[in-house]
Amino acid sequence: MPERVRHGAAIGADLARLDGPDKVTGAARYAADFRLDGLLHAVMAVSGIARGRVTGLDVAAAEAHPGVVRVMTPENVPKLARSPDAKDGPFGFKLDLLQDEAVRYANQPIAVVIAETLEAATEGARLLAPRYATEAVRVGLDGEPVVPEAVGPGAPARAGYGDVAAGLGAAQTCIEATYETAAQYHNALEPHAAVASWEGDHLTLYTPSQALALATARIAGLFGIPPGNIHIVSHYLGGGFGSKGMVTSPQILAILAARLVGRPVKLVTRREQMFGPVGHRAATRQTLKLGAGADGTLTAFDHHTLTQTSRYDDFIEPSGIISRNLYASPALASTHEAVRVDIATPIFMRAPGEASGSVAIESALDELAAELNLDPLELRLRNYAEVEPVSKKPFSSKALRDCYAQGAERFGWASRPTAPRQMRDADGLLVGWGMGTATYPASMFQAEARAVVRADGTALVETAQHDMGQGAWTSLAQIAADGLGLPLESVTLSIGHNRLPNGGLAGGSTGTATAGMALHNAGQAVIAALAELAVNDPASPLYGAGNAGVAAEGGRLARRDDPARSESFSEILARAGRDSVEARGTGAADPAAKKAYAMHAHGAVFAEVLVDPDLGQIRVSRLVGAFAAGRIVNPRLVRSQYYGGMIWGVSFALHEHAAMDARTGRFLNNNLAEYHLPVNADIPAMEAILVEEADPHVNPLGIKGVGEIGITGTAGAIANAVWHATGVRVRDIPITLDKLL
Ligand code: MOS
């Protein structure tokens, strides 16, 4: 077992965001806040059809409008070094950069109007009055499906083991049910914005990014310039959720517009334009076939996902991947198919795959429990996976039993009647209780960091990580401080632009563990360098202690065998005649541990809903989540991540639904008035319990990610609570009152 890292006072501290005051006073500058000299404003014109060709644009009318500088169309868009349709790896999404007149989805960018003011650009875009040659459109899930090779960013489309048919045949009780989940469109508070400025072939770009290194490489490839010529600034993001993991068409169009007019250009995606060019979570139709013995032990688990993707690119929502690590079963199948339709390509969205898969699986488990007349939590305990079902690997840690127990206790689950429609509140509303299991992989990408300890005893630590709002400015500083043996206030963290060491991704719940390990290792390397200076210096109280014999704490190095013999970092540097000492560190998964163990965070979510028996109105009245995700870097920030995930779970279960006109492929509700999201009044008393878990294998700090797990389990728990309140099983998510009546 690898040695676990000792940590200081900063990790685990319940701190508010260090950047909070800057955010609430407006000092924090987001991409669209950067005003450069000579800045022009760009507005996209987007397609009003979903398939066909643009046959005419009234460019002359737009350019005649006062303030309009240029209209960028396929005829004058600057040439790229690489086709926007070229793919470079699993993150190489195709882009729509005015490469031709073809239209492949509604709201696809078809022109960009560049003007002295936002108002002029907006009016110019309206004056373009596009004409189209329209082709017949197909959207929805019906159609000839294809079996993809891979789903998500490279998971196999099919996985499983054992004889599922035999398992179903031998079962005492079987359920088969098909669930639909609606498409959800990325709508972070901050839409995709970019301020682009060229000087020769050097580009400065202010834009939100969850993956600065990937963005730099993508832009370098498209424009045929060295990555070193590109400076991307992304200090703050107003949310990301996967849509800012890859650069999107609007961001590149801003760069192209700046190149075309030779002046800095700002382009902010309008809210209604978020529906299309920046990605979405695809709709799914999932069929679950579960077989169980009389005691509730599963005999077979079959999870088939039908989803949709675009006609021109390949992202497949991987709803089935979660069934591969969730419940024990002697036979299991997890398969995917997709239909190609006239929509924009789906993309990652918070817990991509797990979120949509979880709601179907947890609903099916609930149906099976009802069929068996068994408590739904008991059913899950009887099928607890002691090893990861498909890989058969042991879990690096799995405190799921504790999550079930602590969540159930806090919620009061034990007094739940098994049958539905048994409880009413004082106002006569139907009360229902449901639960679901939460899980999300604990993965790492790769990151580098640099740490410098200066003569005054303070430190600078750097890595190109990203703060989407989750609190990276704080949690990464906490990890760095402990890695350096310094108090938090002595450490300055620099993140959020691409000239820093590659910080990996803020995605897949990997950011804190990956960049955190890089910062930790860089800090440890600096301490080793300081120790080297001290132990070899006869004037030092540490002389002769040897590297292994000293420890850093509070900005001092002390002998382990005699802590009274110590000296400060400043004293060591002063005597050595050095201004500073610096070192680098890397954060990455340990391949041997990854090979030996399955690594996941786990949780259990319990929900109470109130349903009006006459009107069908549904309200979530209580939500309790209990999550185990290894070492907790900052309880306040982690709880906030769980709350955010659980709120999205409420949205998934009851609100979010991007509706499309099947005849035209156009959106019916691409605005935040009609694309429903929960508001404060929809969000009940929530509680997130931090279940203790020590994981010696995920990484030496023992950190798992927390960004995505909260959405898993939650939507299913709410759907199950609706059934428990009403006795009506709605398999069409989101559950709205019309489906109850
Ligand atoms: Mo997340 S969908 O990896 O931002």
From TrEMBL:
Q: Which domain of life is it from?
A: Bacteria
Aldehyde oxidase/xanthine dehydrogenase a/b hammerhead domain location: 25-136
Q: Which InterPro entries match?
A: Ald_Oxase/Xan_DH_a/b, Ald_Oxase/Xan_DH_a/b_sf, Ald_Oxase/xanthine_DH-like, AldOxase/xan_DH_MoCoBD1, AldOxase/xan_DH_MoCoBD2, AldOxase/xan_DH_Mopterin-bd_sf
Please provide, alphabetically and separated by semicolons, the GO molecular function terms listed in this UniProt record.
iron ion binding; oxidoreductase activity
Q: Which SUPFAM superfamilies match?
A: CO dehydrogenase molybdoprotein N-domain-like, Molybdenum cofactor-binding domain
PANTHER family per the record? Answer: DEHYDROGENASE (PTHR11908:SF153), XANTHINE DEHYDROGENASE (PTHR11908)
Please identify the protein, giving its name as recorded. Answer: Dehydrogenase
